[in-house]
Specification:
The complex is a heterodimer. By secondary structure, chain A is mainly alpha-helical. Chain A contains four helices and two strands, in the order ααββαα. Chain A has a two-stranded antiparallel sheet with strand order 1-2. The longest helix of chain A has 32 residues. By secondary structure, chain B is mostly helical. Chain B is 65% helix and 4% strand. The radius of gyration of chain B is 26 Å and the shape is globular. Classes of the chains: A mainly alpha, B mainly alpha.
C-alpha cells in the first residue's frame, strides 16, 4: 500500500503511527552530517569567490600590473587570503568533522556480502 | 611528448626502468588479488572487494581515481598558460574530500548493503524496485565512461611513448608495426609509435584489471597514489629554491605580457656555430635570439635549449650565464630541432599572470571570468559528488570508522597535491619561459630541469612516473565500473538471472577484456576534441546522477518516476547547450553559455527541479520500500 505523503515519523511522532518502527539512526545521522557539510561548502564558496573577486581580479577599467599586486608569503595576497587560508580552515574543519562530528554507525544488515561470504 | 629526449639529456633512463618496475609490480599485485577471489562470493569480491576496504586502501583508491591524467598533464599546462588564477579555478578542492565522501558515503554504503547491491544501477533498481531505472542508469554510465576511457587510453599511450622512444627495441618495434600496418586502411593515419604504445599500455591495464578485479585496482591505486604525493613533495621545494624564493618568482612572472608564437619553422641556424642570430619579432624593433648552449658546426642538437631574447646592441651579453638571466628577463622562447623556431609576437594584455581573470589567447574576457569561477566551485566539489565511479567506491569501505579516517587522509592528500601544483607551475613560467606552444610538455620538462639543476637527474624518473600513475589508476577504475554494469545490471539481472557463479565468473573476465579492447580500438583513432569531451563526460554524469541519488538516499517521498525523470532531464538540459552550439554552426565541444555559466549549472538546475516536481506529481513510493530504507529494522 502506498505511503500517503511524507512518512509521519520523519515529520515528527504521531499517536496514529504508534506501530511505526523508529527512524533508522544511520539515515538521521547521515542526513544531519550532510547538512553540516553543505553548510561548510557554502561558507567556503562564499568566502573564496567573494574575496578573490573583490581583491584578485583586474578589470579593463582598472587594470593591475604584476608590480601592483601585494604579496604575502611570496604569493599574491588574494591567493593567500582567498584560497590558501580558507583551504587551511576547511582542512582543519573537515578533519574535525571526520574525527569528532561524524558518528560511528552500524552499516551491516542481514543481506550484506560479508554474511554471504561466511555462508559459502 | 619527448620525455625520453629530455631524460637522455640528464643522462638518465630512470623513467624507462620505472615503467618496467610498474608493469611487473601491477602484475604481481593482480596475481595476489586473484587469489583473494577464491572462496568468496565472486561478483562481490571481483567488483567491490567484498566491502572490506580498510582506511588506507579506501582513501588512496578514492584519491587516485579522482586524479586522472589531466591532473599531471592538462592542469600544469593550464597553470603555466594562465598563471595564479588557477588557484581559484581549483579552489573547491579545499572542500572536495569531505563533500565527495561525506555527503553520500555513509548512507549509500548502508543502502547498498540493505539491497545487497554492488553497482550504482543495482542500488537505484533495488531502492525503487524499477528494472527500467537500472537499465537507463546502466546505459548512461556505459556511454559516459566509455568515452572517457578512450581519452584516458590515448593519454596513457602518449606518456608511454615519451618514456620509451629512445630505446632501441622500441624503435625496432615501431618499424615492425609500420610495416605490418601500412596496408591496413583503418590504421592509415595512425602513427606506428602511438599504436605500439597504445597496445602495450592497453594490454597491461586490461590484463591486470581483468585478472585481479577490484582488489588489483585498489592496491595498484595505493602504489600510484604514493608515487603522486612523492612527485609533488620533491618538486615543490626544488621549484621554489631554484627561482630564488617564491616572492622573486611571482615578481618575475611576465607582467601583463602575452607571447604568441607562430607555427614553427625549421631552424637553418642549427647548422652554424653559435651565437645564432635568427629573426626579428613581428611588429617590434629588431631583436635577436641567442642560445645558451654551444654546438659544433654541422651537428644538430638532440635536445631543446633555451635562447634569450636580447636587443641587437646587447647581443654579446646573451651567451654567458643565460640561466641566471632567465629570471631577470622573462622574454625567452625555447627552440628545438623538432619544432624549429617560432616568431614571437608580444602584446600587452589587460589581465596578467598574477591576477584574475588570467590571460587568454582566445577570449577577450580572460581565462576565468567571475561567472565561470562560480561554475568551477560547483564543478569539482558538487559534480564530483555525483560521479558514479566515486559512488561505487563509497560502497566498498568496511565500516564508518574507515570512512571517517579516510576523509582525514584524502583531505590532507588533496591539500598536498593540488595547491602545491599551482605554486610549482607558476614558478615554471620563470624557470622555463616561452613554452606556450608546448605547454603540455611542461611537467616532464620541469621534472628534468629541477632534478638536473639539483644534481639528481635520476629523480626525474620518479617525477615523470606520477602522470603515468594517474592515468593508469583512472583507466583501471573506469574499466571495472563499466564491466560491472554490463555483467551485473544487464546480463545477470535482465538476461540470465539464474546464471551460475562459473558463468558469471567467465562473463566478468570476458566483459572486462572486451570493454578494454573496444576502448583501445577506438583510441587508435580518437576524436579531435577529446579533452573537451572529458569535461562533457564529467559534468554530464553529475547532471544525471547527483540529484536522483541524493533524493534516493535522503528523501523518503522520492519515487522512481521523479528520480528517473530528473536523471533524463538533467541529461537533456546538459546536452542542449552543446547541441545548440552545433546547430548554430559552432562546435559540439564549445557549448552555448547561459548567462556566462557552464552547461553544468543548467543541467543541475533542470535535474533538481524535475526530480522535485515529478516526484510530487506522481504517487508516493510503496510503504515497504520506505520502511526498509528509512526505518530501523525490527
Amino acid at each position: 500500500m502506498p505511503v500517503r505523503g511524507r512518512p509521519q515519523s520523519v515529520r515528527g511522532k504521531s499517536a496514529a503511527m504508534i506501530d511505526q518502527p523508529p527512524d533508522d539512526p544511520v539515515f538521521l545521522h547521515a542526513r544531519r552530517e550532510a547538512i553540516v557539510i553543505l553548510l561548510l561548502w557554502g561558507a567556503a564558496f562564499g568566502w573564496t569567490v567573494t574575496y578573490c573577486t573583490l581583491y584578485g581580479y583586474s578589470t579593463l577599467e582598472s587594470p593591475m600590473s604584476a608590480a601592483e599586486v601585494p604579496l604575502t608569503l611570496g604569493m599574491p595576497s588574494w591567493v593567500v587570503w582567498g584560497v590558501a587560508f580558507p583551504w587551511l580552515v576547511c582542512m582543519v574543519v573537515s578533519i574535525w568533522l571526520a574525527l569528532f562530528f561524524i558518528q560511528d554507525d552500524d552499516l551491516n544488515s542481514s543481506s550484506d556480502l560479508a554474511s554471504e561470504e561466511s555462508n559459502d | 611528448m619527448d620525455f625520453s629526449l629530455l631524460l637522455a639529456a640528464g643522462g638518465s633512463n630512470a623513467a624507462i626502468w620505472t615503467f618496467l618496475f610498474y608493469t611487473i609490480a601491477v602484475f604481481v599485485i593482480a596475481g595476489f588479488a586473484n587469489r583473494l577471489l577464491k572462496g568468496k562470493d565472486f561478483l562481490g569480491e571481483y567488483f567491490l572487494g567484498s566491502r572490506g576496504l580498510g582506511t588506507w586502501a579506501f582513501a588512496l583508491t578514492f584519491a587516485a581515481t579522482s586524479a586522472s591524467g589531466g591532473t599531471f598533464t592538462g592542469f600544469p599546462a593550464k597553470i603555466y598558460t594562465h598563471g595564479w588564477i588557477l588557484a581559484l579555478w581549483i579552489a573547491s578542492y579545499m572542500i572536495v574530500p569531505i563533500c565527495t565522501m561525506g555527503l553520500f558515503g555513509k548512507r549509500i554504503n548502508q543502502v547498498a548493503r540493505k539491497s545487497n547491491s554492488i553497482t550504482i544501477p543495482d542500488v537505484l533498481r533495488d531502492r525503487f524496485e524499477s528494472p527500467v531505472f537500472g537499465i537507463v542508469s546502466t546505459l548512461l554510465i556505459v556511454f559516459f565512461l566509455a568515452v572517457n576511457l578512450v581519452a584516458q587510453f590515448k593519454a596513457g599511450s602518449v606518456i608511454l611513448q615519451s618514456l620509451v622512444q629512445d630505446v632501441g627495441i622500441y624503435q625496432s618495434g615501431v618499424q615492425w608495426v609500420a610495416q605490418r600496418t601500412a596496408d591496413v586502411g583503418f590504421l592509415a593515419g595512425v602513427q606506428p609509435g602511438y599504436l605500439l604504445c597504445l597496445i602495450l599500455f592497453g594490454l597491461a591495464v586490461i590484463l591486470y584489471t581483468s585478472y585481479g578485479g577490484f582488489h588489483a585496482v585498489v592496491w595498484t591505486d595505493v602504489m600510484q597514489g604514493v608515487v603522486m604525493v612523492a612527485g609533488v613533495a620533491i618538486m615543490l621545494p626544488l621549484a621554489i629554491s631554484q627561482v630564488g624564493g617564491m616572492s622573486a618568482g611571482t615578481r618575475a612572472m611576465s607582467p601583463n605580457i602575452l607571447l604568441t608564437l607562430s607555427p614553427p619553422t625549421v631552424l637553418p641556424a642549427f647548422q652554424e656555430k653559435l651565437p645564432i642570430v635568427i629573426v626579428d619579432e613581428v611588429g617590434a624593433p629588431g631583436r635577436c635570439f641567442i642560445s645558451n648552449s654551444t654546438f659544433p658546426k654541422g651537428v644538430v642538437s638532440q635536445t631543446p635549449f633555451t635562447v634569450q631574447v636580447v636587443e641587437m646592441d646587447d647581443s654579446l651579453h646573451g651567451v654567458a650565464n643565460a640561466r641566471n638571466r632567465v629570471i631577470e628577463t622573462p622574454n625567452f622562447i625555447r627552440l628545438s630541432p623538432e619544432t624549429g623556431w617560432s616568431v614571437v609576437s608580444r602584446r600587452e594584455v589587460p589581465f596578467g599572470f598574477v591576477t584574475g581573470p588570467g590571460p587568454s589567447r582566445d577570449d577577450v574576457n580572460g581565462f576565468l571570468p567571475f561567472s565561470l569561477a562560480i561554475s568551477f566551485f560547483f564543478m569539482w566539489a558538487i559534480s564530483g559528488t555525483g560521479q558514479p565511479q566515486y559512488m561505487v567506491r563509497l560502497m566498498a569501505f568496511k565500516d564508518t570508522r574507515t570512512l571517517r579516517h579516510a576523509i582525514v587522509a584524502v583531505t590532507i592528500y588533496s591539500a598536498v597535491i593540488y595547491f602545491p601544483l599551482v605554486i610549482i607551475f607558476c614558478m615554471a613560467r620563470v624557470l622555463l619561459p616561452g613554452m606556450e606552444n608546448e605547454a603540455d610538455k611542461i611537467m616532464p620538462t620541469m621534472a628534468v630541469t629541477l632534478t638536473e639543476n639539483a644534481g639528481v637527474p635520476w629523480l626525474a624518473g620518479l617525477l615523470i612516473a606520477a602522470p603515468f600513475a594517474a592515468v593508469m589508476s583512472t583507466v583501471d577504475s573506469f574499466l571495472l565500473v563499466i564491466s560491472s554494469s554490463v555483467v551485473r545490471d544487464i546480463y545477470q539481472r535482465n538476461i540470465n538471472p539464474a546464471a551460475s557463479e562459473k558463468v558469471i565468473k567467465r562473463m566478468s573476465y570476458f566483459t572486462t577484456l572486451v570493454v578494454g579492447t573496444v576502448a583501445m580500438v577506438f583510441a587508435m583513432n580518437p576524436p579531435q576534441y577529446l579533452q573537451d569531451l572529458i569535461v562533457y563526460v564529467g559534468s554530464g554524469l553529475a547532471c544525471c546522477f547527483l540529484f536522483p541519488v541524493a533524493a534516493m538516499l535522503y528523501w523518503p517521498r522520492a519515487n522512481s518516476p521523479g528520480c528517473l525523470g530528473g536523471m533524463l532531464v538533467g541529461f537533456g538540459a546538459h546536452l542542449a547547450p552543446h547541441l545548440m552550439a552545433k546547430f548554430e554552426g559552432g562546435s559540439f565541444a564549445k557549448p552555448v553559455d547561459l548567462f556566462g555559466l557552464s552547461p553544468l549549472m543548467a543541467g543541475f538546475a533542470a535535474s533538481l527541479i524535475a526530480t522535485l516536481f515529478l516526484t510530487l506529481l506522481t504517487p508516493p513510493p510503496a510503504e515497504h520500500l520506505v520502511r526498509k530504507y528509512f526505518y530501523k529494522e525490527s
